[in-house]
Amino acid sequence: MLYNGEQIGDGTPPQVDIAVDPLEGTTLAAKGMPSALAVIALSERGTMFNPGPIVYMEKLAGAEDIADLLDLDRPLTKTVELVAERRGVEIGDIVVVSLERDRHTDTLQAVRDLGARVRLIQHGDVSASMLAVSDRSPVDLLWGIGGTPEGVISAAAIKSLGGGLVGKLWPRDDAERAAAEAEGYDLSRQLTQDDLVKGDDCFLAATGVTDGDMLQGVRYQGAKSATTESLVMRSRSGTVRRISARHDRTKLRALVSERYG
Ligand code: FBP
Fold first, then answer.
1. pLDDT digits (tens, 9 = 90+) for 213-227
2. Whose CA is nearest to atom 1 of ligand 1?
3. Is the pLDDT score of 260 beyond 80?
4. Which residue has the CA at smallest separation from atom 8 of ligand 1?
5. pTM for the full model?
6. Could you list the residue range(s) of the whole structural domain that residue 207 is in?
7. Is residue 123's pLDDT more than 50?
8. Are residues 86 and 208 in the same domain?
9. Looking at the domain assignment, is residue 6 inside a domain?
10. Residues having CB within 6 Å of any atom of ligand 1
11. Number of domains the chain contains
12. Collapsing DSSP states into helix, strand and coil, what is residue 100?
Protein backbone atom coordinates (compact mmCIF):
# COMPACT_ATOMS: atom_id res chain seq x y z
CA MET A 1 0.00 0.00 0.00
CA LEU A 2 1.13 3.59 -0.64
CA TYR A 3 0.00 6.52 1.47
CA ASN A 4 -1.22 9.70 -0.24
CA GLY A 5 1.81 11.59 -1.49
CA GLU A 6 4.34 8.81 -0.83
CA GLN A 7 7.35 9.02 -3.16
CA ILE A 8 8.84 5.82 -4.57
CA GLY A 9 11.62 5.10 -7.04
CA ASP A 10 14.94 6.85 -7.60
CA GLY A 11 13.60 9.74 -9.70
CA THR A 12 14.58 8.23 -13.06
CA PRO A 13 12.03 9.33 -15.70
CA PRO A 14 9.30 8.86 -16.64
CA GLN A 15 7.81 10.30 -13.48
CA VAL A 16 4.32 9.01 -12.87
CA ASP A 17 1.46 9.11 -10.41
CA ILE A 18 0.56 5.73 -9.00
CA ALA A 19 -2.62 4.52 -7.37
CA VAL A 20 -2.33 1.03 -5.96
CA ASP A 21 -4.58 -1.27 -4.05
CA PRO A 22 -2.72 -4.52 -3.55
CA LEU A 23 -5.90 -6.09 -2.23
CA GLU A 24 -9.10 -4.28 -3.18
CA GLY A 25 -11.59 -6.18 -1.05
CA THR A 26 -9.51 -7.39 1.90
CA THR A 27 -12.59 -8.76 3.64
CA LEU A 28 -13.71 -10.45 0.42
CA ALA A 29 -10.38 -12.25 0.18
CA ALA A 30 -10.36 -13.14 3.88
CA LYS A 31 -13.83 -14.67 3.60
CA GLY A 32 -13.27 -16.25 0.18
CA MET A 33 -16.01 -14.07 -1.27
CA PRO A 34 -16.11 -12.95 -4.93
CA SER A 35 -14.38 -10.06 -6.69
CA ALA A 36 -11.26 -9.29 -4.65
CA LEU A 37 -8.61 -7.74 -6.94
CA ALA A 38 -5.01 -6.65 -6.91
CA VAL A 39 -4.88 -3.42 -8.90
CA ILE A 40 -2.41 -0.71 -9.87
CA ALA A 41 -2.84 2.36 -12.08
CA LEU A 42 -0.15 4.70 -13.44
CA SER A 43 -0.55 8.01 -15.22
CA GLU A 44 1.62 10.99 -16.08
CA ARG A 45 2.98 12.97 -13.13
CA GLY A 46 0.45 15.33 -11.56
CA THR A 47 -2.60 13.89 -13.32
CA MET A 48 -4.21 11.88 -10.52
CA PHE A 49 -6.70 13.49 -8.18
CA ASN A 50 -5.43 13.77 -4.61
CA PRO A 51 -8.26 12.64 -2.32
CA GLY A 52 -6.89 14.76 0.55
CA PRO A 53 -8.78 14.32 3.81
CA ILE A 54 -11.97 12.98 2.26
CA VAL A 55 -12.27 9.23 2.71
CA TYR A 56 -15.52 8.67 0.81
CA MET A 57 -16.92 9.63 -2.55
CA GLU A 58 -20.41 9.17 -3.98
CA LYS A 59 -20.00 7.45 -7.34
CA LEU A 60 -22.18 6.70 -10.32
CA ALA A 61 -20.83 4.69 -13.25
CA GLY A 62 -22.28 3.25 -16.43
CA ALA A 63 -21.41 2.21 -19.97
CA GLU A 64 -20.64 4.47 -22.94
CA ASP A 65 -24.22 4.61 -24.26
CA ILE A 66 -25.53 6.09 -21.01
CA ALA A 67 -22.45 8.03 -19.90
CA ASP A 68 -24.12 11.38 -20.65
CA LEU A 69 -27.00 10.48 -18.31
CA LEU A 70 -24.79 10.11 -15.24
CA ASP A 71 -25.60 12.96 -12.86
CA LEU A 72 -25.42 12.93 -9.07
CA ASP A 73 -27.40 16.16 -8.79
CA ARG A 74 -30.63 14.46 -9.75
CA PRO A 75 -32.34 11.60 -7.88
CA LEU A 76 -30.98 8.18 -8.76
CA THR A 77 -34.52 7.04 -9.57
CA LYS A 78 -34.73 9.66 -12.32
CA THR A 79 -31.44 8.46 -13.79
CA VAL A 80 -32.72 4.88 -13.71
CA GLU A 81 -35.79 6.00 -15.66
CA LEU A 82 -33.62 7.79 -18.22
CA VAL A 83 -31.38 4.73 -18.63
CA ALA A 84 -34.41 2.46 -19.18
CA GLU A 85 -35.78 4.90 -21.76
CA ARG A 86 -32.42 5.20 -23.55
CA ARG A 87 -32.00 1.43 -23.68
CA GLY A 88 -35.61 0.79 -24.61
CA VAL A 89 -36.15 -1.62 -21.70
CA GLU A 90 -38.57 -1.85 -18.78
CA ILE A 91 -37.63 -0.18 -15.50
CA GLY A 92 -37.69 -3.68 -13.99
CA ASP A 93 -34.85 -4.70 -16.31
CA ILE A 94 -32.48 -2.10 -14.90
CA VAL A 95 -29.99 -3.38 -12.31
CA VAL A 96 -28.10 -1.07 -9.96
CA VAL A 97 -25.11 -2.57 -8.16
CA SER A 98 -24.26 -1.01 -4.82
CA LEU A 99 -22.35 -1.62 -1.62
CA GLU A 100 -24.67 -2.83 1.14
CA ARG A 101 -24.35 0.02 3.62
CA ASP A 102 -26.79 1.77 5.97
CA ARG A 103 -25.98 5.08 4.27
CA HIS A 104 -27.52 3.69 1.05
CA THR A 105 -30.78 2.37 2.49
CA ASP A 106 -33.14 5.20 1.52
CA THR A 107 -31.81 5.69 -2.00
CA LEU A 108 -31.84 1.98 -2.77
CA GLN A 109 -35.34 1.60 -1.35
CA ALA A 110 -36.49 4.35 -3.72
CA VAL A 111 -34.88 2.44 -6.61
CA ARG A 112 -36.71 -0.74 -5.57
CA ASP A 113 -39.99 1.16 -5.12
CA LEU A 114 -39.60 2.37 -8.70
CA GLY A 115 -39.43 -1.26 -9.77
CA ALA A 116 -35.76 -1.49 -10.70
CA ARG A 117 -33.49 -4.18 -9.31
CA VAL A 118 -30.64 -3.81 -6.86
CA ARG A 119 -27.60 -6.08 -6.65
CA LEU A 120 -25.91 -5.68 -3.27
CA ILE A 121 -22.23 -6.33 -2.79
CA GLN A 122 -20.36 -6.43 0.50
CA HIS A 123 -17.14 -4.80 -0.78
CA GLY A 124 -15.26 -4.07 -3.96
CA ASP A 125 -16.68 -1.11 -5.82
CA VAL A 126 -13.68 -0.97 -8.20
CA SER A 127 -14.67 -4.34 -9.61
CA ALA A 128 -18.33 -3.26 -9.64
CA SER A 129 -17.47 -0.03 -11.51
CA MET A 130 -15.56 -1.99 -14.12
CA LEU A 131 -18.47 -4.39 -14.45
CA ALA A 132 -20.99 -1.56 -14.84
CA VAL A 133 -19.15 -0.09 -17.84
CA SER A 134 -18.40 -3.42 -19.53
CA ASP A 135 -20.10 -4.81 -22.63
CA ARG A 136 -22.91 -7.28 -22.00
CA SER A 137 -22.76 -6.45 -18.31
CA PRO A 138 -25.37 -7.95 -15.99
CA VAL A 139 -25.64 -4.54 -14.28
CA ASP A 140 -26.53 -1.14 -15.71
CA LEU A 141 -25.28 1.25 -13.05
CA LEU A 142 -22.88 1.29 -10.14
CA TRP A 143 -24.04 3.71 -7.47
CA GLY A 144 -22.93 4.36 -3.93
CA ILE A 145 -20.63 5.97 -1.44
CA GLY A 146 -17.31 4.17 -1.32
CA GLY A 147 -13.63 4.95 -0.95
CA THR A 148 -12.22 8.02 -2.71
CA PRO A 149 -8.96 6.26 -3.71
CA GLU A 150 -11.10 3.44 -5.15
CA GLY A 151 -12.90 6.15 -7.16
CA VAL A 152 -9.58 7.26 -8.66
CA ILE A 153 -8.67 3.67 -9.56
CA SER A 154 -12.12 3.07 -11.07
CA ALA A 155 -11.73 6.25 -13.13
CA ALA A 156 -8.36 5.02 -14.41
CA ALA A 157 -9.97 1.77 -15.55
CA ILE A 158 -12.92 3.52 -17.17
CA LYS A 159 -10.61 5.77 -19.21
CA SER A 160 -9.51 2.62 -21.02
CA LEU A 161 -12.63 0.47 -20.83
CA GLY A 162 -14.95 3.28 -21.96
CA GLY A 163 -18.11 4.43 -20.24
CA GLY A 164 -18.37 7.09 -17.58
CA LEU A 165 -18.04 7.72 -13.88
CA VAL A 166 -19.01 10.78 -11.88
CA GLY A 167 -17.99 11.23 -8.27
CA LYS A 168 -18.69 13.74 -5.55
CA LEU A 169 -16.64 13.97 -2.38
CA TRP A 170 -18.72 12.84 0.61
CA PRO A 171 -17.46 14.13 3.97
CA ARG A 172 -18.39 11.90 6.91
CA ASP A 173 -18.82 14.76 9.35
CA ASP A 174 -18.46 18.51 9.81
CA ALA A 175 -14.78 18.22 10.76
CA GLU A 176 -13.96 16.40 7.52
CA ARG A 177 -16.04 18.90 5.55
CA ALA A 178 -14.22 21.84 7.16
CA ALA A 179 -10.80 20.25 6.58
CA ALA A 180 -11.59 19.67 2.91
CA GLU A 181 -12.95 23.18 2.40
CA ALA A 182 -9.88 24.64 4.12
CA GLU A 183 -7.74 22.78 1.58
CA GLY A 184 -9.79 24.20 -1.28
CA TYR A 185 -11.84 21.13 -2.25
CA ASP A 186 -15.19 21.93 -3.89
CA LEU A 187 -17.60 19.45 -2.30
CA SER A 188 -20.47 20.29 -4.63
CA ARG A 189 -18.52 19.52 -7.79
CA GLN A 190 -19.10 16.36 -9.80
CA LEU A 191 -15.77 14.94 -10.86
CA THR A 192 -15.65 12.88 -14.04
CA GLN A 193 -13.14 10.16 -14.84
CA ASP A 194 -11.13 12.84 -16.66
CA ASP A 195 -11.02 15.01 -13.53
CA LEU A 196 -9.99 12.07 -11.36
CA VAL A 197 -7.26 11.04 -13.81
CA LYS A 198 -6.34 13.83 -16.20
CA GLY A 199 -4.53 13.37 -19.49
CA ASP A 200 -4.73 10.44 -21.81
CA ASP A 201 -1.85 8.19 -20.95
CA CYS A 202 -2.99 6.06 -18.14
CA PHE A 203 -2.21 2.39 -17.54
CA LEU A 204 -4.00 -0.05 -15.31
CA ALA A 205 -3.49 -3.68 -14.42
CA ALA A 206 -5.93 -5.69 -12.33
CA THR A 207 -5.53 -9.32 -11.33
CA GLY A 208 -8.30 -11.39 -9.82
CA VAL A 209 -7.63 -12.67 -6.32
CA THR A 210 -10.98 -14.38 -5.78
CA ASP A 211 -13.33 -15.35 -8.63
CA GLY A 212 -15.63 -12.55 -9.75
CA ASP A 213 -17.70 -11.26 -12.65
CA MET A 214 -14.71 -9.40 -14.09
CA LEU A 215 -11.85 -11.78 -13.44
CA GLN A 216 -11.14 -15.31 -12.40
CA GLY A 217 -9.25 -15.51 -9.13
CA VAL A 218 -5.97 -17.22 -8.33
CA ARG A 219 -6.26 -20.98 -8.70
CA TYR A 220 -3.73 -23.42 -7.32
CA GLN A 221 -2.97 -26.69 -9.03
CA GLY A 222 -1.05 -28.58 -6.45
CA ALA A 223 2.21 -27.43 -4.99
CA LYS A 224 3.77 -26.60 -8.32
CA SER A 225 1.44 -24.52 -10.41
CA ALA A 226 -1.05 -21.64 -10.13
CA THR A 227 -3.09 -19.67 -12.65
CA THR A 228 -4.10 -16.02 -12.65
CA GLU A 229 -6.23 -13.82 -14.86
CA SER A 230 -5.51 -10.12 -15.39
CA LEU A 231 -6.76 -7.15 -17.36
CA VAL A 232 -4.06 -4.80 -18.62
CA MET A 233 -5.09 -1.59 -20.32
CA ARG A 234 -3.90 1.79 -21.61
CA SER A 235 -6.19 4.76 -22.11
CA ARG A 236 -4.30 6.36 -25.03
CA SER A 237 -4.76 3.35 -27.30
CA GLY A 238 -7.85 1.96 -25.59
CA THR A 239 -6.26 -1.48 -25.81
CA VAL A 240 -7.53 -3.85 -23.13
CA ARG A 241 -5.74 -7.15 -22.83
CA ARG A 242 -7.05 -10.11 -20.87
CA ILE A 243 -4.11 -12.22 -19.80
CA SER A 244 -4.33 -15.75 -18.50
CA ALA A 245 -1.10 -16.80 -16.90
CA ARG A 246 0.24 -20.04 -15.53
CA HIS A 247 2.87 -19.69 -12.85
CA ASP A 248 5.42 -22.24 -11.76
CA ARG A 249 5.30 -21.84 -7.99
CA THR A 250 8.44 -23.89 -7.47
CA LYS A 251 10.52 -21.74 -9.82
CA LEU A 252 9.01 -18.51 -8.48
CA ARG A 253 9.80 -19.54 -4.95
CA ALA A 254 13.40 -20.10 -5.94
CA LEU A 255 13.59 -16.84 -7.91
CA VAL A 256 11.99 -14.50 -5.41
CA SER A 257 11.17 -15.56 -1.92
CA GLU A 258 9.04 -17.90 0.10
CA ARG A 259 6.19 -15.42 0.41
CA TYR A 260 5.32 -15.67 -3.30
CA GLY A 261 4.99 -19.45 -3.12
P1 FBP B 1 -10.70 -2.60 1.38
O2 FBP B 1 -10.11 -3.53 0.39
O3 FBP B 1 -9.74 -1.55 1.79
O4 FBP B 1 -11.32 -3.35 2.51
O5 FBP B 1 -11.86 -1.80 0.61
C6 FBP B 1 -12.99 -2.46 0.17
C7 FBP B 1 -14.11 -1.48 -0.10
O8 FBP B 1 -15.32 -2.22 -0.15
C9 FBP B 1 -13.98 -0.66 -1.38
O10 FBP B 1 -14.25 -1.38 -2.55
C11 FBP B 1 -14.97 0.43 -1.12
O12 FBP B 1 -14.73 1.57 -1.92
C13 FBP B 1 -14.77 0.71 0.34
O14 FBP B 1 -14.20 -0.48 0.90
C15 FBP B 1 -16.03 1.05 1.08
O16 FBP B 1 -15.68 1.43 2.36
P17 FBP B 1 -16.50 0.97 3.66
O18 FBP B 1 -16.31 -0.52 3.80
O19 FBP B 1 -15.89 1.74 4.77
O20 FBP B 1 -17.93 1.31 3.41
1. 999 999 998 878 999
2. 25
3. no
4. 123
5. 0.95
6. 16-48+203-260
7. yes
8. no
9. no
10. 23-27, 99, 101, 123-126, 146-147, 150
11. 2
12. coil
